[in-house]
Amino acid sequence: MSSPIAKLSFWGVRGSTPTVDPATWRYGGNTPCLELIAPDGTKFILDCGTGLRVLGSRWTSDPSVTPATTHILVTHYHWDHIQGLPFFSPLYNEKNHFQFYSFRSKFLGPDSLRQVFEAQMALPYFPVDFSAMNAQRKFREVDGGDSFQVGENKITARWLNHPQGCLGFRIETPAGIVAYATDNEPGLPALDKNLRELAADADIFINDAQYSPSQLANERKGWGHSSWSEGVKVAHEINAKTLVLFHHDPDSTDRVVDQLLRQARDEFDSVFAASEGMVITLGGAASEPVQAHMPGSRTALRREAQFHACVAGVTADGLRFEEKTVVRDLSIQGALISLKHSPRMQSELQVVMQAPSSNGMQEMVLRGYVVRIEEGAEKGTTAVGVVFTD
Hints:
Number of strands: 21
Distance between the termini: 47 Å
Mean pLDDT: 91
CATH class of the largest domain: Alpha Beta
CATH superfamily of the largest domain: Ribonuclease Z/Hydroxyacylglutathione hydrolase-like
CATH architecture of the largest domain: 4-Layer Sandwich
Low-confidence stretches: none
Helix content: 10-25%
CATH topology of the largest domain: Metallo-beta-lactamase, Chain A
Strand order of the largest sheet: 6-5-4-3-2-1-14-15
Strand content: 35-45%
Shape: globular
Radius of gyration: 22 Å
């Protein structure tokens, strides 16, 4: 009998405002949006940032995607968590059904979420109003401490520390537990306790990591966000299996996020930095570590090549390796490399390639990050997608 499987996809991972800076391309510039497909087929969407548009485009371009009711959990009403909704094309199809969940704001009163969606599409802010969305829509108010059932999955909400209020969500599926705790700042004991209850024994703990520990202690104190070190601290305390650093600051380049990830991995075994297109699979064999991968859609246009290379890095088990290979698939930004070793996702690799030049063969020493891992074309090999950073 096969084990239940759930799939968690990241469509937007940036905080505060979208970015189009090339220096943030690798992790992505869209604001928060996640998709969780539970083992029973139930579809959940977590937040409606600009990543929601990308998810909607995928649904409409794939005729096999015909969801029944989709359940959308909105943590709070700040722009970066709602601004993708007007561009979510499935909401303009009357055949689709959506159930929305969020809290009653003390500033808005009853039916707060509907009010927020209507206001951001009201004249003169948007060409059409909310009534142009002819999908079936229902709204349900939830409060911190509420729990409810959707199919085989239990949803629990907890208040987190963020200006004007924010909910964290815990989704317990037959394949495992996902705790989504974006936009929270440590320091208030009651809300710190909520966070730990929300994430207790989670298989995937997604936590705000917008600021560095120094920023959180000084110039960004009171802004409602957290750091990688706080996430690691909580992950240890609540026995999380995997920590995902989320809600990257718009001013944090890919290299800055790389550094935060390295620091977190020095203190916790299983850590990923949320990246657009990243997919995490829950379930399967209990002894297997949580795996994340990037689909080919995030890779650049490639050309065939043939460079002898020596690759050094770290395996998924944390063991260092060095291996000779041939790079046969190359782009300006990276390469797809066939290896006998399987490196850790989002780990750093050094690739030394032998390239012809006017002075004969020349070594090119490149550093990059693993963004994609899949089964290789040859038996016993792994195809490793690398984006070069140096």
